[in-house]
Design brief:
It contains 6 helices and 17 strands. With 315 residues, it is α/β, with parallel strands linked by helices. The chain starts with 5 loop residues before the first strand and ends with a helix.
Length: 315
């Protein structure tokens, strides 16, 4: 398809993580002509998750494996999926929604936004410079590069503590640096980390700088926020897990969002614009898991099918 060709669908889904894939499955299984437009590859944050142990019915599976199965299942019902699709503009307010991208223009009755979130940056010197040369946001993708090395993990949530534990499969030592004196990660995840002899925790400390030798990371500066003392700490890599920012830039000015840029929906996944739904991490929600994202996506698609049915009844 050329970039200025226009194609029409019942439902356009933006984002191919668990929320988008579940929405695609329910919409195409509900006989809607449906397409998923994904910026990178399908799977979303599942691709960055080593082991998923809290998706009911699936035990001992990796995130990428669940993502792949979800993709296959969604395609089986006829949902089209376009990957590496860069969207430049969305027009959501009219009865017909329009999505413009480098893979074409897509017109639809409904848009389901499932663009998820991306790892927040620390924004400190050395972070950008050593990105992919010792600085990483994805233990599953990059952990194996650090066999027999010493690593620092920054953060105190589920991601930092869980992925820090995963990194001990490769590293000789993992130091988790957290800005407070208690993790916010789930207790079961914390307990596993505390029992792991390769994990060391540095509390009340931030990383104001990442240092290297031009080729890769060699150390970080650790600053104790209580004493204000700083010291240099040798390491071969830094994994940063300091939270997630929603991917909502494209929709600013059109959709209602909270202060952190997450889309506000009601319990039916409806946004402030009729025919526009949001599902998964991109919306304001108290639990961000693959299972809740999939639940949001299936609910959004079911509501969307009803919305399109009502439009047809009016015609
Ligand atoms: P998160 O829960 O928002 O935690 C971010 C952590 O980074 C917090 O501990 C925070 O410290 C710290 N932080 C934030 N900004 C910082 C900065 N500038 N410098 C240093 N530290 C900073 O993010 P997450 O761990 O990525 O998790 C995101 C969501 O995904 C959560 O809802 C989580 O439950 C979910 N998740 C679940 C699983 C699972 O179920 N197994 C796995 C991964 C993620 P404070 O604690 O002081 O705020």
């Amino acid at each position: 398809m050329s970039s200025n060709e226009t194609k029409e669908y019942d439902i356009v889904i933006i984002g191919g993580g668990p929320a988008g894939l579940a929405a695609g499955l329910y919409a195409s299984r509900g006989n809607m002509k449906t397409i998923i437009l994904e910026k990178l590859l399908t799977g979303g944050q599942l691709n960055n998750t080593a082991e998923v142990e809290n998706y009911p019915g699936m035990d001992h599976v990796t995130g990428p494996e669940i993502g792949e199965e979800m993709t296959k299942q969604t395609k089986r019902f006829g949902c089209e999926i376009v990957t590496n699709c860069n969207i430049s503009k969305v027009e959501l307010s009219g009865k017909d929604k329009v999505v413009e991208s480098d893979k074409g223009i897509f017109k639809s009755k409904v848009v389901i936004i499932a663009t998820g979130s991306e790892y927040r940056k620390l924004n400190v010197p050395g972070e950008k410079e050593y990105n992919a040369r010792g600085v990483s946001y994805c233990a599953v993708c990059d952990g194996a590069f650090f066999k027999e090395k010493e690593l620092v993990v920054v953060g105190g949530g589920d991601s930092a503590v869980e992925e820090g534990t995963f990194l001990t499969k490769f590293a000789t030592k993992v130091t988790i640096v957290h800005r407070r004196d208690a993790f916010r990660a789930e207790k079961i995840i914390q307990d596993r980390a505390f029992k792991n002899p390769k994990i060391n925790v540095v509390w009340d400390t931030v990383v104001p700088e990442i240092k290297g030798n031009g080729n890769g990371v060699t150390s970080v500066i650790l600053k104790n926020v209580k004493t204000n003392e700083s010291k240099e700490f040798s390491c071969d890599g830094v994994f940063i897990y300091v939270g997630l920012d929603p991917n909502t830039q494209l929709f600013k000015g059109q959709l209602k969002m909270d202060n952190s840029g997450k889309i506000i929906t009601n319990e039916k996944m409806e946004t402030n614009i009729p025919g526009v739904y949001a599902a998964g991490d991109v919306r304001e929600t108290p639990l961000k898991q693959a299972v809740t994202a999939a639940s949001d996506g299936s609910l959004a698609a079911t509501m969307a099918i009803g919305y399109i049915g009502a439009l047809h009844d009016k015609e």
